[in-house]
Design a protein that fits this description.
Length: about 400
């Protein structure tokens, strides 16, 4: 009896990365991006894509390659005075039903567009990183800075599972650098820093009763009405931090209560998410919520510090000037939380920069203009080569 190996073959990204050289349009990168997107990599299931990335990077003699779980790290060792760290996550949110894969090319309002899961968040950034990692460091195309390329897993789920966080805990030396660029979608412009995020559960307590005799009980769901009222009346702040204005947000993202349709519920829990400006500490954000929901039980379930823009460091300022010259787009604030915050905690200034409209992230109609791929690749390449 012979056994059959059911392990799928590793997708060969090497020829596609070789073809993704600087050109006048983005079509040279679209095949690479499509191949990356078409390898399903929902959070927790990134091994096939991580394998393909590892094979591609190990084929490059100018790179040292290491792997930790489904995170792959590649580094140049050119003896430069400064090191730039690029980071991009391999995972996506779940596919739609029916699946929004395989990818497809569409002639859209912005020209040729690639549609499908991951085409915004954030495989375009990964494609640009892979194309540059395969090229820069070869003889004749050596960057002005040493470069670390990090491709990691499980960014779209709980913070404790985040692959970059795992590397920071177990191998912090792999994240060391003077400046970091996270390839999150930013519409091909720099988005500095990020808001912090905190989730809390705000609870009410009632008394159970048969719903036919509701007057002998106390309905905990009804008691939650003032909580929702406070949220509906809340006016989010706009906060200036180091030259960028961050807009906060606060809202209910979940509510649960009740055990049966003929029972008055004795408990209700409203889950609230607060996205706070990076000038605020997690402790201050928690205190703000406790003040807002004074009189109720408040339990913190998840919290992550934000990151200041970090654009005042000389290397960050040089990068900002290069991107503005290449794209004509000035830096903007990042409203959502991203892994720039992890670099900020390590004392490394970091920005978000990648193709794709962040407003399309996680949407069923995710798509990216092909032209943005080339715009980001060429701006990064010129800056790394000192030609901007």
């Amino acid at each position: 009896m012979t056994s059959t190996d059911l392990t799928p073959p590793v997708v060969d990204l090497w020829p596609l990365a070789e073809a993704a050289r600087p050109g006048e349009a983005g079509e040279d990168l679209v095949a690479l991006l499509a191949a990356i997107c078409d390898v399903e990599s929902v959070s927790g299931d990134e091994s096939a894509l991580a394998d393909a990335v590892e094979v591609l990077l190990r084929a490059q003699p100018h790179l040292e390659v290491l792997r930790d779980g489904n995170a792959v790290v590649a580094r140049t060792h050119l003896g430069r005075d400064q090191r730039v760290v690029f980071a991009g996550h391999l995972d996506t949110v779940p596919l739609t039903t029916p699946p929004n894969l395989p990818t497809r090319l569409v002639e859209g309002e912005s020209g040729l567009e690639l549609w499908g899961r991951g085409t915004v968040d954030m495989k375009p950034g990964v494609a640009v990183m892979l194309a540059l990692a395969a090229e820069l460091g070869r003889p004749g195309v050596e960057p002005a800075h040493d470069v670390t390329w990090i491709f990691y897993d499980q960014e779209e789920v709980e913070a404790v599972r985040n692959g970059l966080g795992r590397l920071a805990r177990h191998h912090p030396e792999l994240l060391a650098g003077d400046f970091a660029i996270v390839g999150e979608p930013s519409d091909a412009g720099i988005e500095g820093g990020c808001n912090g995020t905190i989730r809390v559960e705000v609870s009410t307590r009632g008394v159970t009763a048969h719903s036919a005799r509701a007057w002998v009980g106390v309905n905990a769901i009804h008691l939650a009405a003032p909580i929702l009222g406070r949220l509906a009346a809340y006016q989010p702040r706009e906060v200036a931090v180091d030259g960028l204005v961050y807009r906060e947000s606060l809202g209910a993202v979940g509510i649960r209560g009740g055990v049966a349709t003929n029972v008055i519920p004795d408990s209700c829990v409203v889950t609230v998410n607060y996205r706070f400006a990076p000038s605020l500490s997690p402790a201050a954000a928690e205190n703000h919520l406790r003040d807002l929901f004074d009189g109720y039980d408040v339990v913190v379930t998840d919290v992550a510090r934000g990151a200041r823009p970090g654009l005042d460091a000389p290397i960050a300022a040089a990068f900002t000037a290069a991107v503005e010259a290449a794209t004509g787009v000035s830096p903007r604030p990042k409203y959502g939380w991203t892994d720039v915050a992890r670099f900020a905690e390590l004392g490394i200034p970091a920005v978000n920069f990648g193709p794709g409209d962040p407003l399309l992230a996680h949407k069923d109609d995710e798509h990216v203009p092909v032209a943005q791929l080339a715009r980001c690749r060429d701006a990064l390449r010129a800056w790394l080569l000192g030609r901007s």
